Every structure is written in structure tokens, then in C-alpha cells.
């Protein structure tokens, strides 16, 4: 259990009252496995990911990342846990326009104080792993949408995370490119033994998931993985 969510309740202020975005959610994601979270817009998928990423602290429940309960840590210790163990891929790649693909990855390494030589080797290795060996020196505008999302994924892997959290990575891609990105995520999950959570509103996506869960009104239901 590289990632364990247990009894997670999260509310947001809503006028006079509170809106319950997550209601007693439990989820266990072992290393090297892919969990797909499906469900309609507004059902709580992004909230679940934000809690798993330790970016949002729930009202109740435990978020255990690589054996440590993040909810009892100080803000600073939580940031360290996140940097060392969690890779996050948001919906939009948010690449820096002035930088080449390899430099997008090196920014991450710089933030975590990695040695430049080793960081450069790792960045090149990861770009090759996501199928961009020949594109390392292209800037953001010279890459297609699918290639930008691959850079985004490679960047999230730079610090060798044990947990990989991905929010709707294919929403800006056509079906074929979207399917290729999902395939890539499944492959990386196995090769790098990450506990991966993939959020999507498209129920046809998670063909290669080990576990598929459905969110509805902040509650989570398990259903058998598609084969
Ligand atoms: P999904 O990702 O499945 O679309 P979200 O987790 O974004 O769902 O949202 C779940 C519910 O929480 C929705 O009703 C949404 O309006 C509400 N919500 C999400 N983020 C906030 C926020 N920062 N403040 C208040 N309400 C929020
Ligand atoms: Mg969302």
C-alpha cells in the first residue's frame, strides 16, 4: 500500500453551510498498479486527487503515502513528502514556453537539489521513455498537444515518485492520441512500480486499469476492472 486513503471526508464552504465533496472515501493503491477513477463532472474526482496529493487536508481521515500519514505532518514536512514521493500530472501541461522539453524536466530537478549531471541524464532517459528521444530540444510551441502531455508526464517522474496522480490527461487530445497516453501511463506504472491514480470522466478509458472505481456525489464505489 504505497497510497492509502482511509475514511476521507472533505467539505468546502457553501453559503451558510458546507458542501460535502468527499464522503468517507477509502482507497488502497499498491505499487505497480493503476487505479482509474471515473464519474461525472462535480462528483469529487479532482478533490480526491488533491487530497491524495497532500495539497488539500481533509476534514477527517488518513492519507498514507509511502508509510507516512500526511495529515499529521506540518506544512513543511508535507511539502518534503510530496516532493520525494508524489508525481502530479494536471489536466493542462503548464509547460514554460521559453524552455525546451529537456529543460522543463531540469527545472524539477533543480527545485529538489539534484546534481546537474545526473539530472540531465535522467531527463534524457525519461524523455526517451515517453517516446520523445528526438524532441528534447524543442520548445513547447514546437510540440503537439500529445507530445506536451508526454513532457508533462516525464516531468512528474523526474523525482522518481512512488505515487503518480494524473487528472484527466487526455481531455485535450483526440481519441487515438489519448489512448496512446493511457497506454504509456499503464506501461510506466509497471516499469517504475508507481501507485498510479488516473482520473477521467470518460468511462471507456480505463481498459488497462488494475482497479476501476466510480465516484458519485463524493462517494466511491468499486467495480470490476474491464478486461
Ligand atoms: P470533479 O473533478 O469530479 O469534477 P470536483 O472534485 O472538482 O469534481 O468537485 C466536487 C464538488 O466540490 C463540486 O460540487 C464542486 O463544485 C465542489 N468544489 C470543488 N472545488 C471547490 C472549491 N475549491 N471550493 C468550493 N467548492 C468546490
Ligand atoms: Mg475534475
Give structural notes.
It is built from six helices and ten strands, in the order βββαββαβαααβαβββ. It has a single domain (3-223), classed as P-loop containing nucleotide triphosphate hydrolases (Rossmann fold, 3-Layer(aba) Sandwich). 41% of the residues are buried. β4 (60-65) and β5 form a beta hairpin. Helix content is 33%, strand content 28%. It has helices at residues 45-52, 75-85, 101-111, 116-129, 145-156, 175-192; strands spanning 3-14, 17-29, 33-38, 60-65, 68-69, 86-89, 163-167, 195-199, 211-216, 219-223. The protein is globular. α3 crosses α4, α3 runs parallel beside α5 (145-156) and α5 runs parallel beside α6. Strands 6-7-8-3-9-10 form a six-stranded mixed beta sheet. The protein has a four-stranded antiparallel beta sheet with strand order 2-1-4-5. It is an alpha/beta fold. The site of adenosine-5'-diphosphate has 11 residues, from β2 and α1.
